[in-house]
Amino acid sequence: MTSGEVVVALDVGGTGMKCALVRPDGAVVHAERHATRAEHGPDAVVDTILNIAEALAGKARADGLTPVAGGIAVPGVVDEARGVAVWSANLGFRDVPLRDLAAARLGLPTALGHDVRVGGLAEARLGAGRGTGHVLFVAIGTGIAAAHVVDGAAAVGAHGAAGEIGHILVRPDATASRQPVAELAGAPASAADVADRAAAGAPLAVRVWREAVEALADGLATGQALFDVATIVIGGGLAQAGPRLLDPLRAALHERMTFHREPRLVTAALGDEAGCRGAALLALDARP
Amino acid sequence: MTSGEVVVALDVGGTGMKCALVRPDGAVVHAERHATRAEHGPDAVVDTILNIAEALAGKARADGLTPVAGGIAVPGVVDEARGVAVWSANLGFRDVPLRDLAAARLGLPTALGHDVRVGGLAEARLGAGRGTGHVLFVAIGTGIAAAHVVDGAAAVGAHGAAGEIGHILVRPDATASRQPVAELAGAPASAADVADRAAAGAPLAVRVWREAVEALADGLATGQALFDVATIVIGGGLAQAGPRLLDPLRAALHERMTFHREPRLVTAALGDEAGCRGAALLALDARP
């Protein structure tokens, strides 16, 4: 692969799309953001994706670069083997053959991936999990999802739905705390704000923060029991709380380890570029 | 591989060892059972394993067969890559390099595996999961452990401790039910007995059985959220309850599925030969 080669990479979210030209070594040489406008319906979203991808490929060529592949990440249930966006609440997708649509439009081999799984791929290979063979990436934003990455490949599952750690049963007795926890998890600014107020000793903030940490530690302990990873990487908005999250979370996880080896617990290193960079990795991995 | 080739396979449990000569196609051509006598200490257990393995290889040769590999399965934490039995409460093992000890004694390439993971390997490739790429094998005996098998390989984890589904947090509010559940899970005869009594409508048996089923369904729903398998195979003593377990368990699991595809739920097909047959598969996979 020559140095002028790039992958056209899109990370499609419910409100915005992160788009980039990514070099084979994972470096981003150009980045753009666009609105998803999911309210216009799934067909319009697909059109927008294809138009942006095509324009990015054109931009690459205009800059003297050679687009060699396309990589697209979407949320929901994604069948990577068939290249189909099976289901997405945010985007209204139902069985959209997005890989083949984009490959036809771009005239390039294209891969379709799940946003959190490709984010985990990027963190495991280029970011905070680099150098460890077994990584669990946990993205905590408006929801919580995970990617289990072993030797540089993310587990997809039988139906493209692996890693739904947000759907596991943690603390069925803690229903009363769900709402504030959800608010914390959903709003990065609020999470940092609650963390600040908890650090300052405000009683409600202390309680809410502690309950969020305990619930998260339950989920991570479950993940560790089943996956036995070397490193857990925390990403998404809540990770911005940094040591105010990681320090108590590490202590709570430690309490829950019995005979298991305790994983290294770190925050994500790639920020919100992880999705694009992972989509590019997936595309490069899939090239014939 | 010629038709006379066999693997010397041992499945070492806390009380007994199942030992076999297994053909490359998975068929058992000879089986023996021996006492583990773990009370004599780990060194004595290792001696017993090596003596039995050597005798089995001799028996194969006497019968005109050709032993080509050794496969040993043990409980606990097993580092398959290094061939080390890291930890076993039942056998008293701490960092026993059992693979190399057995390879030296047998003069044959030998693989060391985890009892439940190789059992899952056998069920996925030769038994109840055959034909499906993503299988979760859950063995319910004196404890509960699982093996996640994708495309014929069982996930080992970073430290040889993957699949500890018995250690995940299910129903923290249900402490009162833990003891009878444990008794159920621990004693196959009792489990069948409780199932019978529950089927006959005995109130305590009905309650205990229902709680066992609900707790197990919680654990399986967690596993399905994280792994997204096509088939869940229930093995171990509790599986002997058959439809009295599977029918209510399938209903309880169905209630817990949201957007996930529901896995096929079946009982194990290979009985207590799964460990030996899986140890043999592991040995054959590892052959240079």
From TrEMBL, chains A, B:
Family per similarity comment: Belongs to the ROK (NagC/XylR) family.
Sorted keywords for this record are:
Kinase, Transferase
Q: What is this protein called?
A: Sugar kinase
Query: Could you confirm whether the keyword Kinase appears in this record?
Result: yes
Give the Gene Ontology MF terms in alphabetical order.
kinase activity
One Pfam entry for this protein is ROK
Recall the taxonomic lineage recorded for the source organism: Bacteria, Bacillati, Actinomycetota, Actinomycetes, Micromonosporales
Q: Does the keyword Transmembrane helix apply?
A: no
Gene3D superfamilies of this UniProt entry?
3.30.420.40
Q: Signal sequence: where?
A: none
